[in-house]
C-alpha cells in the first residue's frame, strides 16, 4: 500500500480524496496556486506545495511542476481528481515513467475513449450499442449531406475530438446542413486542432443516464448501477439522482453489463463512467466514457455503501476487488444538488466572493462535500462550485423531502447562490414525476418568471448582520452569546429573518 499520495487537484474533490487517504493511514500532499493559498484543501493536507500563479494553465495543468512536487515530497502515487490532468494520457504515462502510480486508467485507455470515432468503432466491436451514424469522419460536406438525407433529419454533426457537448451541431432541416457541417469543421479545428467531423442520427429528448464501473488489474469488473443526470444546462449538471426513476430492472442490468464490456474493450483499470442516451422507448446508446472519478460519485456511494476513492486507491495498489456483481445492491435513493456561487436570475452569472456566514445542513441522511469554510474567499479563477449537497432516503419521495429540508437548513451569506433555484427544481412537477429529460432545464428557463426574493435577500441581509455582529464582537470582546440573549445569537437572528422572508 502507498505511504504518501499527491492530490493533484483543488477544492472539494481534493478534500474528498484526502479524507479517504487519511482513513487509510496514507499521508497527503496538496498543491496550490496563488489563488488557493487559503483554500480548504491546503489546510487539510499534511504538506502543501505552491505550483504557480492562479491560471490553471500555469499551475494545476503543468505536468512537470506536479511531478516535481511528487518527487520532492517523496510520494508513491498521484490522485488526479476530476478535471485538470485527470484525463490527460500524457500525464498518466509520465507518472508511470517517474515511478509514481497514477490513480486512474492507463494512458492508452484514456486515448481509446478520447477520440469519438475510434471509441465508437471499438464499442461496436464489443457489442455495445452506439447511436446510428458514420464509422469515420466525413471530409466533404456534399458527401455528408447525402448520408444525412439517407439517415433522416434531425442529425448531429460531431467533432471526433470533442466531448462533453463541445463541437456539436444539431441539424433539423436539409437546407441548413451544408453550412452547419462546415461550421462544425471550422469549430473543430479552432477548438481541438482536429477538423474531423462525423454524423450521427439525433436522438430526440433523451435522458442522460450513466453507469459507474470499477475494474481491478486482475480483470475483475463490476458496475455500481446508474446515475440519472438529465437535469443540466449547457452541459453543466445541476442535480443528479440514483436510481433513475424510469429505468426497469431488466434495462438496468443490461446497461450495467454493457458498461463493463465497454470498459474491458479498452483494457480499463480503475473507476470510470460510461454515459448513455436513453430514449423514450427505453433504447439506450453509448455516448462516451469518462475515464476518471466524477463529481457526482457520492450518490453512488450512498446507495451502494462503497467508498469509491478507497477502491481507486486499492485498485491502483494492485489489490483485487473482494466482492462481485451479485454482492452489490442499490439501497434506497440518493440525490445530489450542486451548490454554486451563481445567480440563476441573471443567466447563471458566477457570483464568487467571500463567505460571511456559513451553516451547512447535517442530520440524518445528509452529506456535504464542501471546498469552503466560513470567512473564505472563493477564487474567481476556477469553477464557482461551493459544495455538493447529497442526501439519502429510503425511497425517492423520502430523498426529495430530505433534500428540501437540507436546502432549507443551508445558510450561505455574502453571495448569491443557486440554493433557491434547487428548491424550484425539487418542487417542479416534471422532476417530481421523474419523467424529465435533457430539455427539462432549457424548457423551464424559457418560461420561468423570477421567483419571489427569498434566499437571495436572506443572503444579503445575513451579510449585513454578519458585519454588524463582527463589529459588536470587537466592541464586547466576545462574539458569542450566553443564554437567551436574543439578537446576539446570529443563528436566532438569522432564523427570524428567514421566517420574515417567507411572509
Ligand atoms: C447526442 C444527443 C442526441 N443525439 N447525440 C451532449 C454531450 C455530448 N456528450 C453528447 N451530447 C448529446 N449527444 C445524439 N446522437 C444529445 C446530446 C445532448 C445531451 C446529452 C447528454 C446530456 C445533455 C445533453 C444536452 C443536449 C444534447
Written overview of the protein:
The structure is a single chain. The protein has helices at 11-23, 40-44, 63-73, 89-97, 107-114, 116-125, 141-151, 177-192, 249-265, 297-304, 308-316, 396-409, 419-425, 429-432, 440-447, 455-476, 490-502, and strands at 4-7, 27-33, 47-52, 77-79, 101-102, 155-163, 166-171, 197-201, 207-215, 221-233, 236-242, 270-278, 284-290, 333-340, 342-343, 349-350, 357-359, 366-370, 385-393, 411-413. It is of the alpha+beta class and 503 residues long. It folds into 4 domains: 4-103, Rossmann fold (3-Layer(aba) Sandwich); 132-201, Dna Ligase, domain 1; 207-446, D-amino Acid Aminotransferase, Chain A, domain 1; 456-499, no CATH class. The strands form 5 sheets. Strands 13-12-9-10-11-14-19-18 form an 8-stranded antiparallel β-sheet, with helices on both faces. The longest helix has 22 residues, at 455-476. The protein is globular. The model is unreliable at 481-488 (pLDDT under 50). The structure holds ligand MV4. Ligand MV4 is lined by residues 131, 156, 164-165, 200-203, 206, 208, 232, 235, 277, 287-288, 438.
Entry summary:
The protein has 503 residues and is α+β, with helices and mostly antiparallel strands.
Spatially, the strands of the biggest sheet line up as 13-12-9-10-11-14-19-18
Query: Which word captures the global form?
Result: globular
CATH topology of the largest domain: D-amino Acid Aminotransferase, Chain A, domain 1
Q: Give the name of the CATH superfamily of the largest domain.
A: ATP-grasp fold, B domain
Low-confidence stretches: 481-488
Q: Tell me how many strands there are.
A: 20
Q: Judging by the overall fold, what is the CATH architecture of the largest domain?
A: 2-Layer Sandwich
Oligomer: single chain
Percent of residues in β-strands? 15-25%
